[in-house]
Amino acid sequence: MLGRILQKIAPRIGATVMLEPEWKIAGQITFRSGKRCYFRYNTLDLNHMGSSEIAKDKDYANYFMDALGYPIVPGSKTFFSDTWTKTIGVRGRKINDAYRYAQRLGFPVVVKPNSGSQGSGVTLVHNRVEFYRAMKAIFRVDRVALVQTPVQGKDYRLVVLDNKVLSAYERIPLSVVGNGKSNILQLLKAKQHRFKLEGRDTQIRTNDPRMATKLKHQGLSMRSVPAKEQQVFLLDNANLSTGGDSVDVTNLVHPSFKRLAVNLTQDMGLRLCGVDLMVQGDISQKPETFWILEINSAPGLDHYAKSGPTQEQIVEHLYLQVLKRME
Question: Which of 246, 93, 275, 270 is closest to 175 using CA atoms?
């Protein structure tokens, strides 16, 4: 997706983009001066490697953000797979220790992969069975998991380039709205079909066990028929890659939130950064209670770009500014 966007906009500044033809996820940018830069997936030659590596590790990023005085999600602690625990020789951090820690925090708790992206593996768990199921799923793809206290509010992403917020949008978890006739599975399939018509390549995994758990706690299942206009949420994470929706709020962000996002980006040694916030209240109001969920040194904006023509223009403008800074 990024490669196609760059190929489209690069000629506006006299640059060219060569994509690796088989997978189309890696490319070379050649500017008018002859300077060459590279990208892979959403990672560009812009952020410093050390800062990018810290941003990819949620636990390390939390440590430094907390040390700098930024409000992080409370109660966050890492635990390790059995194999990794043996490798690094640490005690008291296995899955059973994680469960005891979750009990001390008090259910429900959030568990997530330490290095995951796009909401993969992020789960709100309410009891022992759900906890072990979610943690084992994480350890199949990551050797480190985070256990956290859940926070409530509106989920926002602010995209910062150097000293400016170029884009901001609210992220709403995957949901369906009832028509009084179709069951939830049918509504999900209709939503997937609508994504396809809109050119959005998001794949809704209707067999995701997190959906069944979320529905169960609402007294529902995939066969349930919601009432007309009834909104049913199917996931707790609000990532667009898992079927969430977005509402553009770029022109509504309170100046204090803009300063916060810019200062955080600079303090973490980044130039391009996606700052994910959970806000009790609204992004247009002066900050009171909020938490930094994560930072992302390679914010993927492809799902956002495909959510509408206005969003596509915003993303193209953002990457045009990125190209100019790289040049």
Answer: 246
C-alpha 150/C-alpha 61 separation (Å) is 18
CATH of 74-148, one of 3.30.1490.20, 3.40.50.1110, 3.40.50.300, 3.90.550.10: 3.30.1490.20
Q: For residues 5 and 326, what is the distance between their CA atoms, to the nearest angstrom?
A: 16
Q: Considering only CA atoms, give the Rg of the chain.
A: 20
Q: Residue 256 CB: number of other CB atoms within 10 A? A: 12
Which burial class, exposed, middle or buried, applies to 303 when counting CB atoms under 10 A from its CB (0-12, 13-18, 19+)?
Answer: buried
Strand (E) or helix (H) holding 305: helix 302-305
Residues 6+ apart with CB under 8 A from 227: 178, 180
| Neighbour count for residue 314 (Cβ, 10 Å) | 21
Cα separation of 72 and 278, whole Å?
Answer: 10
What pLDDT, in 10s, does the model give residues 180-199? 999 999 999 999 999 888 87
291 neighbors 73 (Cβ within 8 angstroms): yes
Q: Whole-prediction pTM value?
A: 0.92
Backbone angles phi, psi at 258, to 5 degrees: -65, -45
Both tokens assigned to 65: 């953000």
How does DSSP classify residue 127? S
Computed over every residue of the chain, the mean pLDDT equals 94
Domain map (residue ranges) of the chain: 2-44, 47-72+153-173+238-327, 74-148, 177-235
Q: Is the domain 47-72+153-173+238-327 a CATH 3.40.50.2000 member?
A: no
State how far the Cα of 19 lies from the Cα of 28, in Å rounded to an integer. 7
Query: Region 294-309: what's the mean pLDDT?
Result: 83
